[in-house]
Amino acid sequence: MGQITLNIAGRNHQVGCRDGEEPKLRALGAMLDRHAPAVQHAAGGSSERTLLYIALILADQLTDRHPPESAGGNAELLEHVAERLEAVASALEEPVPDA
C-alpha cells in the first residue's frame, strides 16, 4: 500500500492509497488546492470549514453539469459523491498516527 503527502490549503495530509494510485491522488489534491485561496478567505482560515467549502464548490460544479432535478439516475450518483466528499474531508482532518 502506498502513502503520499498532499498539501491542501497550506496543510500537509498523509493519505494512504493502493500502489499506482499516487499520480491520480496528487492530481485530485492539486484540484482541491486550486480552490484553497478563495475558500480560506471565505472560511476565515478554519481548516475544517476550508475542506467543507472546497467540497461544496466541487459538488456545485458537478450539479452545474448534471442538475439533480433533470439528472434522473444521476441524483443518486451526486448523493454518493457528496457522501464520499464528506468521508474524505473527515479522513483528512484525522491526525496521522506516528509510524
The chain-level mean pLDDT equals 76
Low-confidence segments, ≥5 residues, pLDDT <50? none
Number of strands: 2
Helix-and-strand structural type: alpha+beta
Number of helices: 4
**What composes the largest sheet?**
2 strands, antiparallel
Approximate helicity band: 55-70%
Our Rg estimate from Cα atoms comes to 15 Å
The fraction of residues in strands falls at: 5-15%
Task: Note down, in words, how this protein is organized.
The chain starts with a strand and ends in a 6-residue tail after the last helix. The mean pLDDT is 76. The protein has helices at residues 22-43, 47-65, 68-71, 74-93; strands at 2-8, 11-17. With 99 residues, the chain is an alpha+beta fold. Strands 1-2 form a two-stranded antiparallel sheet. The protein has one domain (2-93). The chain has 4 helices and 2 strands, in the order ββαααα. The longest helix has 22 residues, at 22-43.
